[in-house]
Each structure stands twice: as C-alpha cells, then as structure tokens.
Amino acid sequence: MTSAPSGPGSTDRGLTPADLYDVRFTRASMLHPGYVESEVDRVVHRAAEELARHAAEKAQLRERVRTLEAQLDGAPAHEPPSEQAVRILASAQQTADNYVAEAEQFSRQVTGEARAEYEEAVRLARENAGAIIQAAQEAAARLTGPAPDGPAQGGHGVAELEEQVAYLKAFGQACRTQLRAYLEALLSDVENEWGRAHPGALPAPARPPAQRAAPEDDADRPTAFEENTAAEGRTGNDAGTGVPAASGTRPS
Amino acid sequence: MDIPAMRANFAKAAATGDEAPLYFYAHLFLSHPETRQMFPVSMAHQRDRFFTALGDVVTRVDDLDALVPILRQLGRDHLKFGVLPAHYPAAGASLLATLEHFDPEWTPELAKSWAEAYDVVATVMIQGAEEAAGQPAWWDADVVGHERRSLDVAVLRIRPQVRYDYLAGQSLSLETELRPRLWRYYSPANAPRPDGLIELHVKARDGGPVSSALVRSIGVGDVLRLGPPLGHLTTGEDSDRDLLLVAGGMGLAPLKAMVDQVARQGPPRRVDLFAGFRTEDQIYDRADLEQLAGEHPWLTVTFAVSDDAASSLAHGEVAEVVRRAGPWSSREVRVAGPEPMVTATVAALREDGVPEHRMSSEVFAPSRPGPSVDGEVTE
C-alpha cells in the first residue's frame, strides 16, 4: 500500500474523497491473489468512521437550522425603526440638504456675477466700437466734405484727398480688426472665468459658501438676465383650456 | 374606506410642513435601506413632491376613472428609478407610520382605510409598470455630438443604444451620472430619424446642477439615461391646416421638431415659425433654422428680439411680432416658451380670432423633475 491512508499524520485530518480515490493496496503474494487484507480493513474502518462523523454533524446542523428558523418566525418580520433613529436620520438628511442648497446658491451667485460681467464687457466694447467708427466716419466726412468748395485747388488737391480717404478707410478697417480681436479676447477671457466658476474647477480651498452668500442681496441679480429665456426642463400646460387671459395684449 | 376621515387625517400631517415628509423618508430608508439609492443626495425638492403626490393620489382614490390612467403612466415612469413591485408595500408601511405619528387620534379604522386605498393605488401603478414590460425601464443613450452655441447654450446629439420611439413635440426625461438621480425634462428638436439621432437644446441655468453639467461637463462618449417620452404637444397629424409655431427661448426645440416632422412625413402644409429671444446673440440655432428655411419653400422663419436696439431683426416681444404679421385665424397654432411669453402669445392670438381648440402650448420652466399627479410636467 502506497498512499495516504497508511501514511503518518493522515488520520487526524479525516478522510477525504481524494484519499479514497488515491488508495493503492499492495498486491498480495502469488499464493494469495488480491490486496493485503489488513490494509483493506483499515481503510474500510476509517471510511465508516468518517461517514458516522458526517451523519452526526448533519444532525447537529439540522437542529441548529430548526432553532434559528423558530427564532425568525417568532420575531416580527420587519422591526419598525425606532423614533430616535428616524429623528437622527431626518436631521442628518436636513443638514445634507442645506449644504447642497448652499452650494447651489453659491454656484448660482458666481455664475450670475460672471454673466453680468460678461454682458457688461460686451456692451462696453460695443459702445466703444460704435464711437470709434463714428469718429472715423466724421473725420472722413470732414476731409471729403470741403473738397467741392475748393475746385480751384485742382487735380493735385483731389488726388491728395483721395489718398487721405483711402488712408482713413484703411484706418477704419484696422480699427475694426483691432476691436474684433479685443472683443474676442474679452469673450474668451470671460469664458475662461466662467469655466473657473464651475464648482468642480474651483481650487480646493474655496471660500466657504456661507460667507459668500452672506448679507448683500446679490443672489437676486442673476434673475435680471433670465428674462425671456427658457431654461432646461419644462412645465406642461394645456393651453387649450388652461391659459388665463393675459394682460399682455395690445391693439395692433 | 372613509375618505373624509382620511382627508382630515392627511391634513394634520400636511400641516406640519416639512416634518411629515422628513419623517416619512427617514422611516422608509431605515426600514428599507435599499430604497435610498433611488433618490438624489439632496431630498429637499423630493420631499414636497413625492409626499404631496402620494397624499393627493390617496385622497382622490374615490375618482378612480380619472386617476387610473395617470397612475398607470406614473407607475410606468417609476421604472426608470429602479422601482420594483416589492417597493410599493415598503412605501405604504412608511406612509401609514407617518400618518399615525402626526395624528393623536389615529384609529385602527383609519389605518385600514389608508391601507386599502394605498393598495388600490399601488396595484394600478404596478399594472402600469407591467404593461410596459416589453420596453426597457430606461434607455442608455451615447452622446455623439456636443456643441457650445453660446455662453450658456449647448446643442447635444445623442443616440439611444436601443430603439427609442417618440413623437415630434414630446419631451423626455434624462439623467446623467454626473448628477445621479436628478431627472430633468428636455424636448428633442427633431422628429424621429431612421438613424435614431436625437438633438437636444440645453441652456445652463445659473446654479442648475443638471443643466450646467450638460452644457459644461458632458462630452462626446458620455452616456445619458432616458426615461419614456411624454407630452401632448403634437403637430396634429389628423389636420392639414397650415401651422403657426411660436417659440420663446429654449421653447424652440419642440417646435423645430415639428418643422422636421412636416419635412419628413407631411402632410404638406405651410409652416411659419417665429422665434423670440432677448438679444440677437442669444439666437443659438440661427444658422440651422435659416438653412431649413432656405431648403423648404413652405417654411418661413422669423426672429424677434425684445432687448437689442442694435439688431436689424424684428423688434418687440414675439407675441407682438407674430400679431403684426397676422392674421392667423385659419392656422393650427403651437406655442412653447417661458410662461409670460406663452400667456401673452396665446391671449393675443385668441383675441385675433384663433379658436381655442386649435392652439396648444407648453410652458418651459427651469428644472422640473417629474410629472405631477395630474400627469403634467410641473414645477
């Protein structure tokens, strides 16, 4: 016999199916064909022991399952949460809600301010552009205007004026280009600022929102820029029946 | 079922303001922790909504004929939140616990009435959800295009991963994983296309968590979750009357979808689209619309600006501009936009002789997360 069942130390870890598969009995002598009887006996004995052990363990477990099940049936299926637990969770939720609301308020304020600045910058730039173009046009008019008064100056004067007109046109063009570049730079600057206003893009040690949101009434400002713009989402409204008569109508 | 007693009892809970819903949700989450993940981090808006709706529904349980279709739709719509039939009894138990907690005169009869009423409602909602069993609970859609059109407006192109059926003019709810459990409604700006692409117009609202994420953080390759479509604004395919479409701001989207619908499926009809904005810069979809008007002889597009002296476009509120271009009394009229604009336009057209039944409208307001008991998408 060559395998585990007779090996030292194999007895205390019990008999595994693999042990049984691996059993190799020693061939008996020529006179007695078959396996050595004592070895076979030993293995069979141990298998029997093992089976008995399993049976006992199974009975024990079955018993345990039964008692646990009995306990489960006795207990209410779902114990309602205690008043205290409900109160604690409710106030925790409320605290969390307040933080979220504060963060949203902060973001609203920052984006609102950014938008106001953006619109102001665009408006100023537009006014500037209008003023410069107008000044250029006036200058051009002054130069070309008197020309008819002085025909006596002859071809020389006309050529000179034409040259000046061309110069002014070029100057106007240059102004336009400059202004466009300026406006675009402003726009991209504002866009950048805007991007930074995104809470996710804020540097970590942002000022606490509570302080920012404090006393000035800035929170109201953004609304001024929302007029006549619809935003995300919508409300359903059956106009067929539901829309009230409006005061917004005017004759013609 | 003693409905007057139930109403009196519910009034007691409602009178506590925020306390009753706070108690309800805390109770629900403690007894069934797995339900917490169906709700957003901040429950502030959710509280008014869900608890009020629940109470409304249950006290109106005597008018089942009116309630049933709404409840079915509601049950179907709740699938996208991951609601299972097993969750209904859980919410019911917490509702009863809440009502009991805030009513010193709670009786076993009252408990029985509420339990019965809730059971009816839950059964109908579960049926509604089961009728939609052939459909997915929600649809994943890939963002395949994202275009910033102005400082705060983006046009998104999304492609649902499986077929998504809707009608031009309807809206759909969507969720992004950047803002979990916050569902918002948007209108596709195109009729259903063979390739399934959907165009969405999104304006970032100051402090709006979903809209600003959609405009500034979402990009090509991200995935959005869509709920089933809903809404009543349609082209009226049974009519071949010419259409007058009046849009204010982002209300343009569903009306552009209608133009697309007429272009794709007809019936052939004249379409006049008016789009009002505050300033010329804000006309975020101008190139597209002008191209459409160039391609289709039956379409005109008129822009109106209300606050832009330098613009060469038509000046004034879009209601006035539309009116000046009338008369429109023979048209089917569709109006979409912010509330004052919709009210003014509908009133002006009514005064000009457009019959009520040929006008329908949709108000666009910021961030409305869900349909109310009345089946409308409301604030």
From TrEMBL, chain A:
Belongs to the DivIVA family. Keywords: Cell cycle, Cell division, Coiled coil, Cytoplasm. GO terms for biological process: cell division. This is Cell wall synthesis protein Wag31. The keyword Cytoplasm applies. Its main location: cytoplasm. The keyword Secreted does not apply. GO terms for cellular component: cytoplasm. Residues 44-109 form a coiled coil. It comes from the Bacteria. Residues 198-213 have a biased composition (Low complexity). It comes from Blastococcus saxobsidens. Pfam families: DivIVA. It is found in: Cytoplasm. The lineage of its organism: Bacteria, Bacillati, Actinomycetota, Actinomycetes, Geodermatophilales. Residues 198-252 are annotated as: Disordered.
UniProtKB/TrEMBL annotation, chain B:
Residues 1-130 form the Globin domain. It is an enzyme of class 1 (oxidoreductase). Its EC number is 1.14.12.17. Residues 136-236 form the FAD-binding FR-type domain. It holds the Pfam family FAD_binding_6. Its cofactor is heme b; FAD. GO terms for molecular function: 2 iron, 2 sulfur cluster binding; heme binding; nitric oxide dioxygenase NAD(P)H activity; oxygen binding; oxygen carrier activity. It catalyses: 2 nitric oxide + NADPH + 2 O2 = 2 nitrate + NADP(+) + H(+); 2 nitric oxide + NADH + 2 O2 = 2 nitrate + NAD(+) + H(+). PROSITE patterns: FAD_FR (PS51384), GLOBIN (PS01033). CDD domains: Mb-like_oxidoreductase, O2ase_reductase_like. Gene3D superfamilies: Globins, Nucleotide-binding domain of ferredoxin-NADP reductase (FNR) module, Translation factors. The keyword tRNA-binding does not apply. Residues 352-379 are annotated as: Disordered. Keywords: 2Fe-2S, Heme, Iron, Iron-sulfur, Metal-binding, NAD, NADP, Oxygen transport, Transport. In the C-terminal section; belongs to the flavoprotein pyridine nucleotide cytochrome reductase family. Belongs to the globin family. This is nitric oxide dioxygenase.
